[in-house]
Every structure is written in structure tokens, then in C-alpha cells.
Amino acid sequence: MLLRQLHSFVAVVECGSFTEAAERCYLSQSAISQQIQALEQELGVSLLIRGNRRFSLTPAGEFVYQQGKRL
Length: 71
Hints:
By secondary structure, this protein is mainly alpha-helical. It has helices at about 5-15, 20-25, 30-45, 60-70, and strands at about 50, 55. Strand 1 and strand 2 (about 55) form a beta hairpin.
């Protein structure tokens, strides 16, 4: 897991938006999405439940978010 991926994930959760997180991290929206997907693949769990322009955290996502904030 790269720290950059974790930072992007925390930004997405805190901003509540992939677009706003991308602006905050000075990345494109697609780069943020790719980093989250890579993090999910590396951890082997789904962190977000994606819907139409909305998302919610899975229990694993909540755990990773709480730990990521601490770093």
C-alpha cells in the first residue's frame, strides 16, 4: 500500500466527492479513482459502496479510513 493511495482514500471520504478530493490532492478525478481501486485490490477488500454519484463506506473502508487519518 502506498501512502499516496491512503492519502487519496482519506481525502475522498473527508470531501465526500471524488472530484473535490482530486482538487484537494492536485490530481485528476480518474487518477484518484485508479488509486482507490489499486488500494482495494492490494487489500483484497472493497472499501466503498459506489452508487449514482454517491458512495458509502464498507466496514473495511471505515477501518482503513480511521487508521489512515491517524497517519
